[in-house]
Amino acid sequence: MSKVQTTPIRVGFIGLNPDSHWAATAHLPALKALSDRYQIVGVANSSLASSQRTAEALGLPHAFASAQELAASPEIDLVIVTVKVPYHRELVTAALAAGKHVYCEWPLGNGLAEARELTALAAAKGVVAAAGTQARAAVEIEHLAKLIADGYVGKVLSTTLIGSGGNWAGQCIAEHAYLFDTANGATMQAIPLAHTFAAVKDVLGPFGDLSARFVSNFDKVTLAETGETAPKDAPDQVLIHGTMESGAAVAVHYRGGVSRGTNLLWEINGTEGDIQVTADLGHAQMVQLTLRGARGDATEMESLMPSAEAYAGWPEDALVRNVTRMYARLADDIQNGTHTVPSFQDAVALHEVIDAIETSARASS
Predict the structure, then answer these.
(1) Where is the Gal80p-like C-terminal domain (predicted)?
(2) Where are the beta strands (DSSP E) in the chain?
């Protein structure tokens, strides 16, 4: 049983810069949209000076010298971890050891073993532990899941997914160079593909057997600021085929960079109809998704977007809206004892899929 809380949830951030990065662009506006349920009270960055700068800029009462100090503070109920993947295990462990609720950005761990370790610790501590697979909270994904469950396409025969990763091609900014080192656990298959797979599973059910092949067209990445190069061993082409547990066929191609054509196309084909999901990038968790479909005797696709009422009261920006909806679920779970937010257990299941894909790709190389 997790702890139930009725007062506003006091938040401590590990890794928060007030004017840049994911925490500032997505998490801060999301929490502000739920200011009746959350209160940001403290921050711990890489140094006390950095924590103090952020706390002063945002008007926070507490700047902590370390993540451990933040986690141990009685002023903190929920610890949010929004740093690079290699640091997740250490920082999440500190928060859980202190008995705090945790929201950790995806990937939960640097690989399956770390994710399993953190999940076991969260269960032992009896806290609410959320993993940031926010595509699962998208209005469009919830609507799509209902369309499939209600039989819009009939029996699902196949699904096809094409996506652009944005990064993982031949060039990047220096800050993103760590993404190109497989050892850091922040590859294309671990981030945009996995985020999108989390939504696919919610709509179509669990994955079955999958086979994969990875291709790398570049062994170095050029840093945009200087023209210098850094080593690259992460794949820039991810090819997957297999089946869902239901028996439906699956075909996936994720490619590095962006395309001048299609950057996200997810098709679901069934005995009675077809649905297309499109977007401007292969990160389903952070872009506006567009749904179109046709069934029966129809020969042209039409809009299948959720009603305007489904968006009422949520932020307009899809990136912020999805994170806000995650935090709403998390608040429900902390304050009411429910189980609605994507959990560490869910994250382990997703890590298992990605691990299976990587294992298959190694075997085929």
Answers:
(1) 141-278
(2) 9-14, 38-44, 62-64, 78-81, 101-105, 129-132, 156-164, 171-172, 207-215, 220-223, 229-231, 237-244, 249-255, 264-270, 273-279, 290-295, 302-303
Structure tokens at 123: 């269960």
Q: Which residue has the tokens 């797979």?
A: 197
| Radius of gyration of the CA atoms of the chain, in A | 20
Q: How confident is the model over 211-217, as a mean pLDDT?
A: 97
| Helices and strands in the chain: count of H runs, count of E runs | 11, 17
Average pLDDT of span 241-255: 98
Q: What average pLDDT does the chain have?
A: 96
The dihedral built from the CA positions of residue 1, 123, 344 and 32, taken in this order, carries a sign that is positive
Q: Is the distance from CB of 79 to CB of 100 less than 8 angstroms?
A: yes
CA 145 from chain centre, in angstroms, equals 18
**Nearest 5°: CA angle at 183, between 164 and 113?**
100
In the structure encoding, which two tokens stand for residue 338, read together? 């429910």
Q: Which domains does the chain have, with CATH numbers?
A: 9-134+320-343 (3.40.50.720), 136-313+351-364 (3.30.360.10)
Q: What is the DSSP letter of 77?
A: S
User: What does the pLDDT average to over 346-352?
Assistant: 98
C-alpha closest to that of 81 among 105, 111, 115, 50: 105
Q: Where are the beta strands (DSSP E) in 19-153?
A: 38-44, 62-64, 78-81, 101-105, 129-132
pLDDT of residue 21: 78
User: Which runs of consecutive H residues, i.e. helices, occur in 205-317?
Assistant: 308-311
- Mean pLDDT (whole number) for 272-296: 98
Dihedral sign computed on CA atoms, order 341, 344, 348, 353: positive
Confidence of residue 255 (pLDDT cuts 50, 70, 90): very high
pLDDT at 2 over 70: no
> How far is residue 49's CA from residue 307's CA, in Å, rounded to a whole number?
47
Residue 1: pLDDT above 50? no
* Whether the Cβ atoms of residue 279 and residue 305 lie closer than 8 Å to each other: no
